[in-house]
Design goal:
This protein is α+β, with helices and mostly antiparallel strands. The protein has two helices and ten strands; from the N terminus they run E-E-E-E-H-E-E-E-H-E-E-E.
Length: 151
């Protein structure tokens, strides 16, 4: 399971067919990619890492607070392209990405886990839809996390 997280202090939205389907005021944009071997251990580890990652500024301007600490939210976007392989040619291969049925199940479980286990408000896009995500990457801060390669 892979995630790219970015912080925002401004409202963020995701639209499908020109309709806003998800919105947060401040917090994290999380792009989530699922692979076939992912399981509940990956969900738990990755959700815990994201919720507790200290990437927001404190009163002294030091990057020392988590999304939970600031009362932030998460805008969760499914992103199968996080498992793209660019090894051969110029057209990425997505064979390492989970099949849609399994990926959607894991995506929904991840969303539920964030809310039920971490009490974080989560807004989402629509799995598999063509989405338009609008936000300001504050910092900018962008972090890549892989549950199989815990670095």
């Amino acid at each position: 399971m892979r995630a790219v997280i970015q912080r925002t202090h401004l409202p963020a939205t995701v639209k499908v067919e020109e309709k806003i389907v998800g919105q947060i005021e401040k917090g994290l944009i999380v792009y989530l990619g699922i692979e076939p071997l992912d399981n509940n251990v990956d969900i738990s580890w990755l959700a815990n890492k994201i919720v507790n990652m200290r990437i927001f500024g404190d009163d002294d301007g030091k990057i020392n607070l988590s999304v939970r600490d600031i009362g932030g939210e998460i805008l969760l976007i499914s992103q199968f392209t996080l498992f793209a392989s660019t090894k051969k040619g110029n057209r990425p291969s997505f064979l390492k990405s989970a099949k849609p049925e399994f990926a959607n199940e894991m995506y929904e479980n991840f969303k539920s886990h964030l809310h039920s286990q971490h009490n974080i408000k989560v807004s989402c896009g629509i799995f598999g839809a063509d989405m338009k995500v609008k936000y300001t990457n504050d910092g900018p801060i962008t972090i890549f996390i892989d549950s199989k390669h815990k670095e």
